[in-house]
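FAQ: What does the model actually see?

It sees only this:
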Amino acid sequence: MALLPTYTQQAIDTKERVTKWHKDITKRLNIDAEERRKRDGLDGALLYIPSLFKDEFKYKAITQNTVNLIASQSAVHEEIYHYDTSDLYAEDVQLIARDGKIYYLPENKVHRLQ
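And it is asked to produce this:
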């Protein structure tokens, strides 16, 4: 049995657990990105009136890189892995010895070389 599908599933499960952990810690520590971005003090007082008309004045700007980091860390990724599902031990192969090394060549590729 090939191990790659098993390891792929373990990697997917680990990513999901890390994402869940990230969200749980964010909730437990009361981390609210929107709340942390709200303007306060003199900055908030100066922009209070304009923020009544346009919501973007209520918040401090953050870089797009920070937005991307937050989004990528809190999203569950559905990545598609393309891998060879053939069982190499069940296939007929031709063994080739060259320069003290042994190579194997699957039978379906032998016909292409001839």
